[in-house]
Amino acid sequence: MKRALVTGGSGGIGSAIARQLAADGCYVYIHANTGLKKAQALSDEINASGGQSSALAFDITDTELTLAALDNILEAGAVQILVNNAGIHDDAIFPGMSQRQWQDVINVSLNGFFNVTQPLMMPMIRTRWGRIVNISSLSAITGNRGQVNYSAAKGAINSATKSLALEVASRGITANAVAPGIIATPDIGDSFDDSTIKQMVPMKRAGEPEEVAHLVSFLCSDESAYITGQVISINGGII
């Protein structure tokens, strides 16, 4: 049984990914930061439906706490599937953006990626099989007003994905990024109403978290073994 870790697994997209990987037969570690109750509820749901999972909480921006949590996971063996989904946004136009807004977003999306991924690499390499999927954003590709910090963080993730893919390709490990557009998560109403979505998206609707999860599932499968170093958009035809 493959062991998978989904960071930010208690959120809208993360929970869909965790459910899908469990349905694919993986043992899924569902990570949360402050949302442990939601992660535990999701784990209970997965386990009740015949899957296998557990929930855990740690702050991925804290190097020592992250290492301690990952050491506990690695005692049972290598994590061969890693989905770096954790991320935050704190939007402001750049002239009015505070240093805290810049640092917080960079810390979670970019430094958090390093803190989680780097300690898992050597155990994964030793198994000669692995899948790393980094959840990026349309904002990293097109840019977005008010999201210089978020676009910078996710753009760096795209570049890191490409370089990491080159380093581990000969070890049977792939690394790809998935860049969602407008996805129907609980907070979508804060940013996009129905009329705006119909104007922006050629398909005239928001994507579903499950549609992102299906793409991630494929990239984590044996069938995707020749796909690596790619940034794959899922946005209903916006670009």
What descriptors fit this protein?
239 residues, alpha/beta, Rossmann fold, 16% strand
Task: Kindly describe this structure.
It contains eight helices and seven strands. Helix 1 (about 10-25) crosses helix 8. With about 240 residues, the protein is an alpha/beta fold. Helices cover about 45% and strands about 15% of the residues. Strand 1 (about 5), helix 1 and strand 2 form a beta-alpha-beta unit. The protein has one domain (about 5-235): NAD(P)-binding Rossmann-like Domain (Rossmann fold). The longest helix has 29 residues, at about 100-125. It is globular and about 45 Å long.
Helix-strand blueprint:
Elements: E1 3-6, H1 12-23, E2 27-32, H2 36-48, E3 52-57, H3 63-74, E4 81-84, H4 99-127, E5 130-135, H5 138-142, H6 148-168, E6 173-180, H7 194-200, H8 209-219, E7 231-234
Parallel strand pairs: 1-2, 1-4, 2-3, 4-5, 5-6, 6-7
Helix pairs in contact: 1-8, 3-4, 4-6
